[in-house]
Specification:
By secondary structure, the protein is α/β, with parallel strands linked by helices. It contains 17 helices and eight strands.
Length: 392
């Protein structure tokens, strides 16, 4: 006759059972969730609730968990921090095909707001029922505006700070003092006895210029693998468009069409609802459009091709020739393999190596790193170190 488990032993087994999942019950009868819950008291009830939430996503037996989606989301939020909630939520969509359920009006308010959810809502928006469309659009706008707010000030400071400062400003910061002009304007205040200048007025540099110093051309691959990058590109393009020193163009493309989003750059949500995520890609079509429509000041243009380089339509030879021609004409040409705050890029290494050999840097970046690299280019600094480790 076996010795009964103490409560501490039961709690230890319950934790192992939660780690191993329901399949562990068939391996050893002592791992049965029902008996362990009974022995563990309040902690057992919490463990059972957590087990049901995990079975909803990771369990092999359909129907084992009786939760509906809002109940399940509530439990996941109860037991885990936001970053884990986002991961489990993504697994639910990927593993269990719950995307359709997640679009229901009663479910949407419970979802963890993050860029992955925005990418899912945008890429699957054709499945959103009419009664849930306003809620879905509201979530997208909420996340996009929050991300834009986080990135806007840093971007503005970095870009303005990188450019020559030839205007004057009432903004009285020590780092912006124009010493030569201040001295010229205050020569009459020279104090001969003390041998020093006592300025009555001080002139300050501004960080911005009225003319547009640089052309920024963003060509964004709309294939499904680039969904999160597409979200960030819309946000960053809208920030660039708000800077009066940059002339910003945003072009979305796939293998069938090129869509110029420049007229609606200030509204990234509108950009995202216009995007047709999915399909193949034709880089030559996009580059041809950029060359014919926007490429005027080669030496003052940064052209960013946002793609993982899995070129499934068009000729690679033509693509490499076009990129070589851009480099030779002094266009600052970059391939951004991924634009995201998380994860390493998955990309076509062979094509990336060929591009690197002709002088095109290929790398993945966070939005902040992208801004830093652009600022370095504007200051005529080398970007090799900044882009190292992000690709090739």
């Amino acid at each position: 006759m076996s010795t009964p488990l103490t409560q501490e032993q039961a709690k230890a087994l319950l934790r192992w059972r939660l780690v191993l999942g329901s399949e562990a019950e068939s391996a050893h009868p002592s791992l049965g969730i029902a008996s362990l819950v009974e022995l563990c008291g309040d902690e057992g009830e919490e463990g059972e609730a957590l087990d049901e939430a995990m079975e909803f996503v990771y369990g092999r037996q359909k129907g084992k968990s009786q939760l509906n989606v809002p109940e399940w989301l509530g439990r996941v939020r109860r037991f885990f921090k936001d970053d884990v909630v986002a991961l489990v939520q993504k697994d639910a969509m990927d593993r269990k095909g719950l995307t359709r359920l997640l679009f229901e009006p009663e479910t949407l308010p419970h979802l963890e707001r993050n860029v992955d959810l925005v990418a899912t809502l945008v890429s699957m928006r054709g499945l959103v029922p009419d009664e849930a469309k306003d809620a879905a659009r509201g979530i997208i706008r909420e996340v996009v505006e929050a991300l834009k707010k986080q990135l806007e000030t840093e971007t503005r400071t970095a870009i303005y700070g990188a450019l020559r400062r030839n205007a004057h400003s009432p903004l009285k910061l020590a780092r912006n003092i124009d010493y030569p002009r201040t001295i010229r304007k205050n020569l009459r205040t020279w104090d001969a006895s003390r041998k020093r200048l006592v300025p009555e007025t001080i002139s300050f540099f501004a960080n911005q210029r009225k003319q547009r110093d640089w052309e920024i051309i963003l060509l964004v691959d709309q294939s499904g693998s680039m969904a999160v990058s597409c979200v960030y590109s819309a946000i960053m393009a809208s920030i660039f468009a708000s800077l009066d020193v940059l002339a910003t163009r945003l072009v979305l493309f796939n293998h069938e069409e090129v869509v110029d989003m420049t007229p609606v750059l200030t509204d990234p949500v509108e950009v995202l609802f216009t995007a047709q995520l999915g399909g193949a890609e034709d880089y030559n079509r996009a580059l041809r459009y950029a060359e014919e429509t926007y490429l005027k000041r080669h030496e003052k243009t940064i052209l960013i091709l946002l793609t993982d380089l899995f070129h499934t339509a068009g000729s690679n030879e033509e693509f490499l020739e076009r990129m070589r021609a851009l480099v030779d004409s002094k266009v600052k040409t970059l391939v951004l393999l991924k634009l995201s705050d998380a994860g390493k890029p998955h990309y076509n290494h062979e094509l990336a190596k060929e591009l690197t050999a002709i002088g095109v840097r290929c790398f993945g970046a966070t939005p902040r790193l992208l801004v830093d690299i652009m600022a370095r280019i504007m200051r005529n600094e080398d970007i090799a170190e900044a882009t190292a480790g992000g690709g090739t």
